[in-house]
Amino acid sequence: MTDTSTARTVHGTCHHDCPDSCGWQVTVDNGVAVQLRGNPDHPYSQGELCPKVTKFIDRVYSPDRVLHPMRRVGAKGEGRFERISWDDALAEIAARFQQAIATHGPESIMPYSDAGNQSMVSIGFPSRFWNHLGATRLVRALCGPTVGAGVTMTNGTAKALDPQELQHSRLIILWGTNTRLTNRHLWPTIEAAAAAGAQVVVIDPIRTVTADSADWFIQPLPGTDTALMLAMMHVLIRDGLTDADWVAMHTLGFAELADHVAEWTPERAAATCGVPAGDIERLATLYGTLRPAAIRTLIGAEHHENGAMFFRTLACLPALVGAWQHRGGGLARSVGVWADELIDGQALHRPDLLAGRAPRWLNMSRLGEALTDPALDPPVTAMLVWSANPLVVTPNAELVRRGLARDDLFTVVHEQFLTDTARYADIVLPATTQLESTDVVPAWGHLWLGWNEAAIAPAGEAVSNSELHRRLAAAMGFTDPALFDDDLTVIRAALPEIDVDELRAIGFVRVPYPDDGRPFANGVFPTASGKVELRSEALVSMGQPALPTYVAPRESPGGDAALAARFPLILLTPKQHTRFLNSSYSHLPKHGPLEGAPYVELCAADAVERELVEGDCVDVFNDRATVRLPVRITTRLRPGVVAIPFGWWSAHHPDGRVANSLTNDTLTDWGGGVAYSDTLVQVRPIN
Ligand SMILES: Nc1nc2c(c(=O)[nH]1)N[C@H]1C(S)=C(S)[C@@H](COP(=O)(O)OP(=O)(O)OC[C@H]3O[C@@H](n4cnc5c(=O)[nH]c(N)nc54)[C@H](O)[C@@H]3O)O[C@H]1N2
Ligand SMILES: Nc1nc2c(c(=O)[nH]1)N[C@H]1C(S)=C(S)[C@@H](COP(=O)(O)OP(=O)(O)OC[C@H]3O[C@@H](n4cnc5c(=O)[nH]c(N)nc54)[C@H](O)[C@@H]3O)O[C@H]1N2
Ligand code: SF4
Ligand SMILES: [Mo]
What is the pLDDT of residue 6? Predict the structure, then answer.
């Protein structure tokens, strides 16, 4: 028998908004992707993929893929569409955009995108079109910028430790990060450190799967960690556990900080954060005595009204104990800023195409407000959404829904699936998956930039984000050549220091990082003073306190008392399912059903108080919305804290709402983020 197989292997990199950016290899036979596996040669992920992406081929070939442009024929939200041609779709979009520009100017058009595909061209190239158009600009701060903004006010930079350096640590504090779920390929590094004797502490308001694997789990009330950190500082200073020499040479404002935290006794902090004073003492003592000591954090803790202050304060801790001196000591967060140094942002985004204009900025977390505020001038009358599903992921989602339902809003959604958001579109356009386009993926959880080679032809009439924006530019009659660069030209321009052909051949390249693993070995920090700023004048000029300061979130039990009396429970809406990546998988048959269905979790004490038992149906409500769900009784939450796992779509919820229907869209103290996790609710049984 002759072997007629034409199978070949194509290497790629996962595009998801996930710190791991795993390398994969796709077997393609006769133009069809038949198998997708982890690339064993990938230096970070080493051949493993997560349970979401091992089934990625099912996503690519799902019968529910959007394969052609479609025009809405039903009511907004109903989900009835008819197929149209690309030419008709583009002509209609161009006409509606021109009409919006003629009536209210280009700022009445709002581009809305997130990191549904975090590849470099996919995420960056569209800016060229929007800059040229002069559209409203989007503050993209749903995820991450608040962490960087907080750390920067202490260290002068958002750069921090490569998390793989944790292999050298003796103490690892996982502070507000659920490593085993959200950053699973870092876990082997932590296990190796633990095997070599490191202690692993998890600090989280939820007893997560990561907490289950830790040596010690500490469970503060959400949004109160700054009080815990101030009390740790109190103990470190009181007990002489700071590194006096390092502090004297490399920090600013120690004496004032010492005065300031004198009143933050463990007892006082315990009353605020709910962690027993003895545990705070023990944590501070561990942190002041074990070397090297690393704190690992990611994104979860930024989603609070005082989110930037959390990270500004957290960044003070390594300085106090001189942790940056030791290999494996310091603070590990996203390493995206190291990768950013390789990317020429000007060449990628081409801000020069703005031609001196300075269009307004609107914050993506306030989409509901942007679409419904009658005072907004100019109003948003047209919108293009791509790489995002705002109706499920944006806080205060019912306000977003009201906005999307507006008859006078022209909405285009470029998607792989008919998401909750896409159902409100006037025009839906088909988007490719990562198997269908070539790009480069800059990671934020490790120091490897990955190549992604297109493995198969685009499904149906799907196009990538960059191709969509080239087509839009042509339809609008634009002629600037920068709007039509092909992907390889963009990649070469944006990576001037990289040999792109070599990257393409090898599949990944290491991002520059200090050889001895210590980002601040010399104790020099890029702040105004050149030191770690325990006291910050820059913060004062921003209207913030000079010293780390605990302020209870307005929407919290310690905040607005009248609100807390009506809605006494804190609602968290976490990432909790192994098979979900934000809202990207809950609708797929090999993902969603295996995670069950939406529920609200509460502890036994809160259930008993409301005479609830497992499986009862309740209304979870506040002034934003009411969400009807079955109850699950859990030991993972403290009294006073309830949780609705996030990621399910309207169709999966019994009443068509989503977790974010309830969440708070107040912006963070600085950094532009949003306070999802400072949400108060009440829970009542349904009679
Ligand atoms: N399986 C899976 N993996 C994912 C994702 C997913 O949806 N599913 N999403 C990806 C994305 S977009 C991101 S940004 C990363 C996020 O990665 P992480 O930041 O690790 O994850 P989160 O679950 O957002 O938050 C981490 C933890 O912060 C806790 N937290 C919330 N408030 C506080 C607080 O006030 N104090 C403390 N100490 N902890 C707090 C939450 O309870 C949660 O357990 O994960 C990525 N990986
Ligand atoms: N309550 C609550 N809300 C949250 C969070 C939380 O923990 N709790 N987490 C927040 C965080 S950290 C984040 S990052 C955001 C995530 O919010 P989003 O970035 O909106 O995340 P996804 O739900 O994954 O939606 C991405 C969409 O992009 C589509 N997509 C994928 N690739 C492409 C592509 O190449 N082109 C186009 N056009 N589309 C593509 C996918 O089909 C998917 O529908 O959610 C935030 N919202
Ligand atoms: S979603 Fe994250 S863990 Fe899963 S394959 Fe992609 S990068 Fe790896
Ligand atoms: Mo995120």
Answer: 82
